[in-house]
């Protein structure tokens, strides 16, 4: 007997069931009233929202003693990234380029369950670090609006503004070889339109307001409100710097921020960019100055030629760091405020000295040859050390903990004196002890940083740097110290062999100098760094 199975019959067609399910989902979405749903419904009711958006920007330009600023309501920000997407689309940014970011703050020990999303862009500071540090005048702060604008056609792509900004605002465009950043959609504001991020935010968490330019309190919110800068940045345990560095004008208002709040990505051990052209520029120029100094103190043609070659190779490496090197001749525009401009000037003044020291001993006799050679010998160390001092100040001026003067000065000057002593050891072994002491002394800042990484103290920028040296950068750290020890062992019996080993050790030391630094920025997300 064969039985037949019939499929169950349905009274309703399949399309009717599908339509009913979609209708139910739409009804549920309306009941949830998410920010996006409310925003969409608002658009459907009022197609022309020009008047509405004008409520999110001032109706008149800033008056005397005022400027435009972003105001972010912490109560309303959901971290949806609509502002990030709108900014990217309207400004035609490259892939992976963003002028506005979102991140997360965590409550810390006092409020372990507290969490807050934060949207951030350029803070259009009262005293912008990017403008002050630029060597070619590629930034301007508008007198009438206070907006800090980047002038793309003036930029040489040196990226020093990125190091100078304590909020990670300027972004380097590899495609264009220049830096770019948020300009508060100044052209839209001039036409009475809201910036892209303001217009795109579904919860109206971002507004443009006029704030008083007070000189010291640009970040303070109206009475009765808390601010992200004052509550989170200044507690010393956030990844963010104090607002007294550049006087940012962005106001974060609304929700109270716990005193122990910190960025969610504070513990992310992500090495920074190595900046290889700068690594070679700094090491080779400082090593060259050291060898030139030894060759001028105890005249030795081999040392003078080696020093001249190293110094000029370092100067050539510096140009590789520029996205637009042909515009670098304009460096004199930043001499008043930029240590980078001063470094370029100091190195340019030193540049003829190595050529004179290396070439004059080989040149035929001519009047004043000895006087010229003697003047070059006397100038090499004073002018060379002045150039190294400007390099120290370039990094000290960024306010990054690992690069402050007490830690960067021994490392930079230590390179000069290590090669000075090693060079003198090629003339007489007695100078080898001086070289050993110089090499050992310049490792002290690194050992101090490693000590912070081993400590159980509360989070700090130096502890973060120490943990990087002992974590992701540990192989480089071991090689750096291993080569330094090898150079110290060889400097007396074989000083010429010690020179290339010391050079390799110093290159690794300078790589760690850049990669282990803690770079302050606005909050990111857990486990990330940008």
Number of helices: 20
Biggest β-sheet strands, sense, barrel = 3 strands, mixed
Strand order of the largest sheet: 8-1-9
- Give the helix/strand class: mainly alpha
Please characterize this protein's 3D structure.
The chain has helices spanning 14-32, 35-45, 50-54, 82-90, 129-133, 160-164, 186-190, 196-200, 228-232, 276-297, 301-319, 339-350, 352-359, 369-396, 405-427, 432-441, 444-454, 461-470, 474-490, 495-515, and strands at residues 66-73, 101-106, 115-120, 139-141, 148-150, 171-173, 178-180, 206-212, 251-253, 262-263. The protein has 2 domains: 51-263, Alpha-Beta Plaits, CATH 3.30.70.20; 276-515, Up-down Bundle (Formate dehydrogenase/DMSO reductase fold). It has 20 helices and 10 strands. The strands form 4 sheets. It has a 3-stranded mixed beta sheet with strand order 8-1-9. Helix 10 runs antiparallel to helix 14, helix 10 runs antiparallel to helix 20 (495-515) and helix 17 (444-454) crosses helix 18. It is mainly alpha-helical and 530 residues long.
Give the arrangement of secondary structure elements.
Elements: H1 14-32, H2 35-45, H3 50-54, E1 66-73, H4 82-90, E2 101-106, E3 115-120, H5 129-133, E4 139-141, E5 148-150, H6 160-164, E6 171-173, E7 178-180, H7 186-190, H8 196-200, E8 206-212, H9 228-232, E9 251-253, E10 262-263, H10 276-297, H11 301-319, H12 339-350, H13 352-359, H14 369-396, H15 405-427, H16 432-441, H17 444-454, H18 461-470, H19 474-490, H20 495-515
Parallel strand pairs: 1-9
Antiparallel strand pairs: 1-8, 2-3, 2-10, 4-5, 6-7
Helix pairs in contact: 10-11, 10-14, 10-15, 10-20, 11-13, 12-14, 13-14, 14-15, 15-16, 15-20, 16-19, 17-18, 19-20
